[in-house]
Amino acid sequence: MSQTLGVLDVRRNNYSGPLPDVFPITCNLKTLDLNENALTDRIPKSLTNCRAMEVLDLGNNQILDIFPLLLTNILTFHVLVLRSDKFRGHIECPENIGAWPVIQIVDVASNNFSSELPKQCLTKWHGMMAVKGYTHLQLNHLRFNFFKFNPSLYYQDALTVTNKGLEMELEMILTVFTSIDFSSNQFCGEIPIELGQLKSLYVLNLSKNALGGQILSSLGNLQQLESLDFSNNSLNGAIPTSLTNLNFLSFLNFSHNQLSGKIPTGYQI
């Protein structure tokens, strides 16, 4: 964990037991990937010493902990994966605690998180709010050759995400790819209006929770959205016509809810 070590990737091994609480003040890690091991216990407090961390993947382990609020003061976070562990409790971002202003990917699927969705966190995730530095055509959702010849636009990290209903592994992560996956937890309450601010979001998955209320018309503001999954909740009312404005939407799943009314038509729908 010296100043020279920037990447530690030991995913898909047989490491077990707790993650040692030995990260030094001089920690300069940018990537820590421990996915698919058998790690237990809590996230060590000394991990906050790694103030240059960009990618943290603790998914598919047996970590039993609450949401790592202690890590919100690391301002360089781009990717946080806590998928398929044993996290529990609420997700919150109090005003007096730091934020993740450049966060792109938050995946906490398949845990035991509960209560309402973290609206106070959504207002702090500025990296998902605006597309900067690229034209609309250049951001044509991974379809143009623009990305193939610009290696600077990738993090050299592998990551498994659920996109368009399928679990897929990204060998490299685009620096402009954004995703929120809160699926398969115990979140309740209504969909927060703050989601409508995340205008650069590509993937939004809130499926398999206990969400109620109506689908917000403000989701029509998410002009970059390709994949939207609200299935297996208790949503009611009609599908808002504003969703027909999502020109890049290619996957939409509202199955197993209590929706009614007319399905809007036009553009992608």
TrEMBL record:
It holds the Pfam family LRR_4. InterPro entries: Leu-rich_rpt, Leu-rich_rpt_4, LRR_dom_sf. The keyword Repeat applies. It is found in: Cell membrane. Its main location: membrane. Keywords: Cell membrane, Glycoprotein, Leucine-rich repeat, Membrane, Receptor, Repeat, Signal, Transmembrane, Transmembrane helix. It is a single-pass type I membrane protein. Gene3D superfamilies: Ribonuclease Inhibitor. One of its GO terms (cellular component) is plasma membrane. Belongs to the RLP family. This is Receptor-like protein 33. It comes from Ziziphus jujuba (Chinese jujube). The gene is LOC112493367.
